[in-house]
Amino acid sequence: MANWMDRFFGLNENGTTIKREMTAGLIGFFTVVYIIAVNSLILSESGMPIEYAIIGTIAASVIGALLMGFWGNAPILLIPGMGINALFSYTLVQSMGLSWQEALAVVFVSGAIFVFVAFTRFSKMLSEAVPNSLKEAITVGLGLFLMLLGLEKGGLVGPGDGAILSLGSLSDPLVLSTVLTFLLAIILFIRNVPGNFLITIVLGTAIAYFFGMIDLGQLSEPGVNPAEAFAVFGSMSFGNFLSTTFWVAVFSLTMVLVFENIGLVHGQVNFINRPEKYSRAFQATSVSTMASGFLGTSPTVASVESAAAMAAGGRTGLTSLTAGFLFMGAAFFIPLIKIIPDSAIAPILIIIGGLMLQNIKNLDMKDMSETFPALLIIALIPFTYSIADGIAIGFILYPVLKVAIGKWREVSPALYVIACLFFVNYVFHVVG
């Protein structure tokens, strides 16, 4: 079996082992497993029963792992995207007036368009149309976003008087637990201790328990009965298919999905120095997105937290498959998963974010027509809490600056079209 895995996944070729890939998958799973609870709560705001949302979230994560593992062969974890789930519940349903069943139909149609793009020459055309400065900026912006999420999740920063953010107090058990766990995590990481992130999660959980932050009574809480929730599969409604509202929703969601994932997948395959994996990984992402509509959840994306699995040594699809198999049983172990505290996960997000920030050295600071749109992407992704908004503003500004200094020929025709589409999408949201 080991020989089969080596041949299929190219373990030797990728300089990895079965043990390392499975450990990385385990780390990745614990880093993203929060999505089960968080995504389900956000989807329930659309009127979807939370039991449906839980099953849909888990099913989409499993299917995404299988697609990325067997087709993409990359250590990328496909899970319902944060931000896009909010767009699903608060924009498509609450603002635009679609039912949650109709919003699932929007996801399916947007995913089908995404699949068309990914499996045709449009994928390469769009990828080549995006300049390297913007691609690098997306990676750096995502890194900064991860660091911010980690700092907030660990209580190290939060809203303050007269300031956007203020430092947390060490008198807070969450902050103290996070600080101690971070010191442990960064030492283990810098010393390159095998399985350092997994050790961090285990010991971080123990530290949190010592400070009284874990209620073991949660272990007795009932899980979800899958038999009662599988009805969410195929619950899409195309009753509004011919309406303007439906197609405005499809246009907006498709723009976000295609270009957010171009940036995410590019950044992640470059993170492991395997750019040749981009095409198939992007295709796997598109099919997973389309499947999300059928399975009953907001679209999956190439999660930012995939970098945690990569930093733990993941290099192939075996990492994704490992996380996928763990998601399969997650519905029965939600109480156990829920006892893992934020203080055990936050340090990992901070470290991974720091690693991704290193890509800023690839920006040419001498050419501000290249650098300034990139810097805006880097700033806006964390400041707006929206990967899509950060990307959109950078993509709109880039051709504007090139035209202003007479270098309009440096911008591909495709990028002009992309910038116009992002602008139109922005106007739709503002007017709406």
Automatic annotation (TrEMBL):
<feature type="transmembrane region" description="Helical">
    <location>
        <begin position="134"/>
        <end position="151"/>
    </location>
</feature>
<feature type="transmembrane region" description="Helical">
    <location>
        <begin position="163"/>
        <end position="190"/>
    </location>
</feature>
<keyword id="KW-0812">Transmembrane</keyword>
<feature type="transmembrane region" description="Helical">
    <location>
        <begin position="413"/>
        <end position="431"/>
    </location>
</feature>
<feature type="transmembrane region" description="Helical">
    <location>
        <begin position="343"/>
        <end position="360"/>
    </location>
</feature>
<comment type="similarity">
    <text>Belongs to the nucleobase:cation symporter-2 (NCS2) (TC 2.A.40) family. Azg-like subfamily.</text>
</comment>
<feature type="transmembrane region" description="Helical">
    <location>
        <begin position="238"/>
        <end position="259"/>
    </location>
</feature>
<keyword id="KW-0472">Membrane</keyword>
<feature type="transmembrane region" description="Helical">
    <location>
        <begin position="372"/>
        <end position="401"/>
    </location>
</feature>
<dbReference type="InterPro" id="IPR045018">
    <property type="entry name" value="Azg-like"/>
</dbReference>
<keyword id="KW-0813">Transport</keyword>
<feature type="transmembrane region" description="Helical">
    <location>
        <begin position="21"/>
        <end position="44"/>
    </location>
</feature>
<dbReference type="InterPro" id="IPR006043">
    <property type="entry name" value="NCS2"/>
</dbReference>
<feature type="transmembrane region" description="Helical">
    <location>
        <begin position="318"/>
        <end position="337"/>
    </location>
</feature>
<dbReference type="Pfam" id="PF00860">
    <property type="entry name" value="Xan_ur_permease"/>
</dbReference>
<dbReference type="GO" id="GO:0005886">
    <property type="term" value="C:plasma membrane"/>
</dbReference>
<feature type="transmembrane region" description="Helical">
    <location>
        <begin position="103"/>
        <end position="122"/>
    </location>
</feature>
<keyword id="KW-1133">Transmembrane helix</keyword>
<protein>
    <submittedName>
        <fullName>NCS2 family permease</fullName>
    </submittedName>
</protein>
<feature type="transmembrane region" description="Helical">
    <location>
        <begin position="197"/>
        <end position="218"/>
    </location>
</feature>
<feature type="transmembrane region" description="Helical">
    <location>
        <begin position="50"/>
        <end position="70"/>
    </location>
</feature>
<dbReference type="GO" id="GO:0005345">
    <property type="term" value="F:purine nucleobase transmembrane transporter activity"/>
</dbReference>
